[in-house]
Design goal:
- The chain is mainly alpha-helical and 271 residues long.
- The chain folds into 2 domains: 92 residues, Alpha-Beta Plaits, CATH 3.30.70; 167 residues, 5' to 3' exonuclease, C-terminal subdomain (DNA polymerase, domain 1, Orthogonal Bundle).
- It is built from 10 helices and 7 strands.
- It has a 3-stranded antiparallel beta sheet. A two-stranded antiparallel sheet has the order 1-2. Strands 4-5 form a two-stranded antiparallel ribbon.
- Strand 6 and strand 7 form a beta hairpin.
Length: 271
């Protein structure tokens, strides 16, 4: 089947990429909103004939940036060894017995007895999902004293006292991070801005002190990933020119179209 025949059968997507719409310098994908597409529907988009896609995802990119900035030994250890942070918080939040293997609590043999005891359902366990949501909220400045207000907590039967205690204990694991957060919050309150590790600036227009703190906490990570994303995009484009074409991404992921005859030469260069 020729390219023209394929395009007559399969509608082509001509989406819009806005580079100015988000303060943390993420791209916005519109018409259609590709970045908001559920993962299980992504296969409805396919490459153009002769232009296969080369894709990657920087896992936990924001956490790595924040970990390096704050230099918290425990946080960096857990990242380097691949600990499941959501399960760590889950143990605190639901008063579960200590898990003997936070690296692979879902399938690893070391945690087999623990899984049986707590009736663990793996990554899709509702307790882990609720803990994951709280973990992200805490990362972006949620007061642990308000942990019990998280959606789904009341329905799951998590008492207010346990929610607060679990959130507080989880944050206490990372004292260097708490010190770093105090420093970046102080800088943001004094200057009305937050910067990433490259020096890129995010002006803060909020007047509410807690809102400014939240910007200070999430800005360095989100902006830092965007800076890496954009720098890599520019480098790939400058190196390979018309033989590559950026298609879309999701903040910490890239999808590039590579001209098929040069695939074997270009993809090792990108790696």
């Amino acid at each position: 089947m020729t390219e023209n025949e394929v395009l007559r059968i399969i509608p082509r997507v001509f989406h819009t990429i806005n580079i100015h719409a988000q303060a943390e310098h993420r791209f916005s994908y519109l018409d259609p909103p590709l970045a908001q597409l559920p993962t299980d529907l992504e296969d409805i988009y396919i490459p153009d004939p002769g232009w296969p896609w080369f894709c990657w995802d920087w896992k936990q990119a924001e956490d790595w940036i924040i970990g390096i900035l704050c230099q918290d030994p425990q946080f960096l250890k857990e990242l380097a060894e691949g600990w499941d942070k959501h399960t760590i918080l889950c143990v605190e939040l639901f008063d579960l017995p200590p898990c003997p293997d936070f690296i692979d609590p879902h399938e690893g043999p070391l945690a087999a007895a623990w899984r049986a005891e707590v009736k663990w359902k793996g990554k899709e366990d509702l307790r882990r999902k609720l803990s994951k949501n709280l973990g992200h909220a805490l990362k972006y400045g949620k007061d642990p004293k308000l942990a019990h207000h998280m959606p789904g907590f009341k329905a799951a039967g998590i008492p207010k006292e346990r929610s607060i205690r679990g959130a507080t204990r989880y944050l206490a694991r990372y004292p260097y991070m708490l010190e770093w957060r105090a420093r970046v919050a102080d800088y943001a309150l004094r200057t009305g801005e937050v910067r990433d590790f490259t020096g890129r600036r995010w002006p803060i227009f909020e007047r509410d002190i807690e809102a400014v703190k939240r910007r200070a906490y999430n800005g360095p990570g989100q902006m830092g990933v965007s800076s890496i994303h954009n720098s890599v995009m520019d480098l790939v484009n400058q190196t390979f020119g018309e033989d590559v074409l950026f298609k879309w991404g999701k903040h910490d992921s890239h999808k590039w179209a590579i001209i098929e005859p040069k695939w074997d030469r270009i993809t090792p260069g990108i790696k």
